[in-house]
């Protein structure tokens, strides 16, 4: 039970300022300090971890890096409250508590041989990045079919992981498209909300396709409705509800939706499962 109850010490080895404007998002690269703990620490795309700022508190965050990177993991954090503010004030070399990993994962085994579509909005790209980089890793790429991405941001200043874009675009059999809310000078990509662009910019009718989406709840709702109306099987529409979590153990009750606890039964759910949940989501 140690990994669930007691945080291990990690070192912040790199901090990347992802966004400009008033949307403060940073990516923190963390390396577990104890070698024995680091070797045993295994996570899967879609899982999450609890980060502890000693003397302040802890909060859950989804992994933003692929488990193929075994020496460290990335967590992307938007500054929104007490714990996230404390993390944003930390510097490279500072220590942070690490508890986990927790939760279920994206079905990376079940989707082998299938075509994949990733639909992300803002920081919702963070948990999807874990699966994207896993799928596009040269060791894994031939196990999956065509990959399409539609990545939505408020503005060019709010784009995450710009340093990944060329690698994604140049990956075999992969198409990446970008959209922002409103047209601006110098922007040459799509303009509009992602659910409005699905049928225009993506091939939704390709057989054996699985859709992954994450972003603000309203975006997830509109996208899942659009995909459902386009005839996509709800079992092939997958998202993550990690924004509702807190303790990671199913004890605090914050992430309760009907009989489900997101931190224990999720955070990854398909639309078929979500349609059986209470209408509160």
Spatial strand arrangement across the major sheet: 10-9-8-7-11-12-15
Overall CATH architecture of the largest domain? 3-Layer(aba) Sandwich
Report the strand count. Answer: 15
Compute the average pLDDT: 92
Main sheet makeup: 7 strands, mixed
Structural class: alpha/beta
Overall outline: globular
Q: What's the CATH class of the largest domain, please?
A: Alpha Beta
Q: What's the CATH topology name of the largest domain?
A: Rossmann fold
The termini sit apart by 31 Å
- N-to-C SSE series? HEEHEEEHEEHEHEEHEHEEEHEH
Strand content: 25-35%
- The named CATH superfamily of the largest domain: Nucleotide-binding domain of ferredoxin-NADP reductase (FNR) module
Low-confidence residue ranges: none
CA gyration radius, whole angstroms: 18 Å
- Classify the helix fraction into a percent range: 10-25%
With helices defined by DSSP (H or I, 4 residues minimum), what is the helix count?
A: 9
Number of domains as seen in the coordinates: 2
Task: Pick out its properties.
281 residues, alpha/beta, Elongation Factor Tu (Ef-tu), domain 3, Rossmann fold, seven-stranded mixed β-sheet, 15 strands, globular
């Amino acid at each position: 039970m140690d990994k669930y109850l007691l945080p291990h010490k990690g070192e912040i080895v790199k901090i990347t300022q992802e966004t400009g404007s008033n949307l403060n998002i940073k990516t923190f690269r963390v390396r577990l300090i104890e070698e024995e703990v680091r070797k045993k620490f295994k996570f899967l795309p879609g899982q999450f971890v609890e980060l502890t700022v000693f003397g302040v508190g802890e909060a859950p965050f989804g992994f933003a890096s692929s488990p193929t990177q075994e020496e460290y993991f990335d967590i992307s954090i938007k500054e929104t409250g007490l714990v996230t503010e404390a993390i944003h004030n930390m510097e490279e070399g500072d220590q942070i508590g690490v508890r986990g990993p927790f939760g279920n994962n994206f079905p990376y085994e079940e989707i082998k041989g299938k075509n994949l579509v990733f639909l992300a909005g803002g920081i919702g790209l963070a948990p999807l990045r874990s699966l994207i980089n896993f799928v596009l890793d040269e060791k894994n790429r031939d196990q999956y079919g065509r990959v399409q991405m539609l990545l939505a941001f408020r503005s060019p200043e709010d784009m995450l992981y710009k340093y990944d874009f060329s690698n994604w675009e140049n990956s075999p059999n992969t198409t990446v498209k970008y959209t922002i809310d409103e047209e601006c000078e110098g922007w040459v990509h799509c303009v509009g909300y992602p659910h409005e662009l699905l049928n225009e910019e993506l091939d939704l009718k390709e057989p054996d396709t699985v859709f992954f989406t994450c972003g603000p709840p309203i975006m997830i709702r509109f996208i899942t409705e659009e995909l459902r109306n386009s005839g996509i099987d709800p079992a092939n529409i997958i998202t993550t509800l990690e924004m509702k979590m807190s303790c990671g153990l199913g004890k605090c009750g914050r992430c309760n939706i009907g009989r489900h606890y997101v931190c224990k039964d999720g955070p990854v759910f398909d639309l078929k499962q979500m349609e059986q949940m209470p209408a509160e989501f």
